[in-house]
Amino acid sequence: MYTVPKLDDYSPAALDRAVADLFGALDAEIAALHSESDWKEFRDRWMARKNGVLTQVNDTWLKAAPKDAKRDVGQRVNELKARAEAAIDAAHEKIHASSAVTKLASERLDITLPGIRRPIGVKHPVLRVQDEIVAVFKAMGYSVGEGPEVETDYYNFESLNFPPNHPARDTQDTLFIAGQEQKAARDRLLLRTHTSPVQIRSMEKLAPPVRIVIPGKVHRNDPLDATHSPVFHQVEGLAVDTNITFSDLKGTLDHAMKSLFGSSVKTRFYPSFFPFTEPSADMQVSCIFCGGKGCRKCKFSGWIELLGCGMVDPNVFEFVKQNGYDSSKIAGFAFGMGVERIAILKYGVEEIQLFYEGDVRFLEQFA
Ligand code: PHE
Questions:
Q1: pLDDT at site 148
Q2: Does any ligand 1 atom lie closer than 6 A to the CB of residue 325?
Q3: CA separation for the pair 327, 122 (Å, rounded)
């Protein structure tokens, strides 16, 4: 680092050399500056009043100069100070500008990069199929209803003609809410096992005629397997009017299946049993995988069982008789279909669990 030398020779040539040395050192230091803080340290070393290089020049060169050289040295020192100060200022500006350039460079935005795209969500396949089913019936003039998922024993079983302790209840085992022993059996809460309780709820609210579909979530104490889940969805249907016959039931469901699976699908009705319908039937569709020829999916029968249905049992109308449901004057049909089951058939899904796992690789196929 530069220190101010004592001068013994005050001749102009010697002074020129001393000044040139000083500026040589100054320029070298300026070239080595990289940051604002480098520059500040450098400035203080050169310009500090107390002991700065320029003050030392004053003290060592001017004050010690012989009388006859004082004038010349004084003038040179003044010039030198002005020049040095200007160089120090210029160095500051240069540092400043170059740090602004690096800052700008680091903040550079590539506006040609594509932005972060937020994928747009779509309806879950189960809801999509549920809505599709509902839409088919809406187009036939049906209204849409809803009911609670936590239901009373009365609506889920009793009013649907499942008497207490009747063995038909065993086919729809479910979860009961705990700690309800003091309540009357019919008031005890449970997770509904089907959407059929909303049949009664709808008939309590609406006088006949009614045509209504009711989508919703239901629960069963069923072990999970490829096609069964303890929580699933159903769409219930109910039509009550004068002169409703089993032919209306068949025609309505046949039309609905053709709308959902295509016009070549066939339906057939097989005797079955539900406490709340009489007669009751299971509806089957011709296998949509093999067209009815027989394959592994339909267990080589050509038919796939799809839903339960039947004519509303007069015992059920008894529970809503006061609202105009007199079984000597009116009749009705009802049906209930599993949404996942229809979705599995429509999309050829192998495992019902895929609907609930939330894996986007599965779900995005339906986008
Ligand atoms: N609720 C019945 C079930 O879950 C289906 C059904 C509905 C049957 C309406 C007949 C009439 O299995």
A1: 98
A2: no
A3: 45
Categorize the per-residue pLDDT at 15 as very low, low, confident or very high, splitting at 50, 70 and 90.
confident
- Conformation bin of residue 348: beta by default, left when phi > 0, alpha when psi is -120 to 50: left
Nearest to 145 by CA among 234, 276, 258: 234
Which ligand 1 atom sits nearest the alpha carbon of residue 160?
Answer: 1
At residue 362, the pLDDT reads 94
Nearest to 284 by CA among 295, 270, 301: 270
Please indicate, yes or no, whether the overall pTM of this predicted structure exceeds 0.85.
Answer: no
CA–CA distances in Å: residue 175 to residues 151, 152, 350: 11, 12, 27
Q: What average pLDDT does this structure show over 167-172?
A: 86
Q: Per DSSP, which regions of the chain are E strands?
A: 143-144, 150-152, 189-191, 210-219, 231-241, 267-274, 277-286, 303-312, 331-338
Question: Which residue's CA is minimally distant from atom 10 of ligand 1?
Answer: 309
Mutating to test ligand 1, I would choose from 133, 250, 276, 340 the residue with most ligand atoms within 8 A of its C-beta, which is 276
The model's confidence at residue 76, banded by pLDDT at 50, 70 and 90, is: confident
- Could you identify the residue written with the tokens 């189960």? 126
**What's the CA-to-centroid distance between 18 and ligand 1, angstroms?**
110
In tens, the pLDDT along 298-326 reads 999 999 999 999 999 999 999 999 999 99
274 CA → ligand 1 middle, Å: 7
DSSP for 131-162 reads HHHHHHHHTTT-EE----SEEEHHHHTGGGT-
Return the closest-CA partner of residue 196 out of 282, 312, 71.
Answer: 312
pLDDT band at residue 206, thresholds of 50, 70 and 90? very high
Distance 143 CA to ligand 1 centre (A): 19
Six token digits for residue 32: 């080595």
Helix (H) or strand (E) holding 193: none
pLDDT above 90 for 104: no
Query: With contact defined as beta carbons under 8 Å apart, do 234 and 338 qualify?
Result: yes
Q: Which residues contact 310 (CB under 8 A, 6 or more apart)?
A: 249, 272, 274, 276, 277, 278, 279, 280, 281, 333, 334, 335
Query: Is the beta carbon of 284 within 6 A of some atom in ligand 1?
Result: no
CB neighbours of 363 closer than 8 A, spacing ≥ 6?
Answer: 124, 125
**DSSP summary character for residue 239:** E
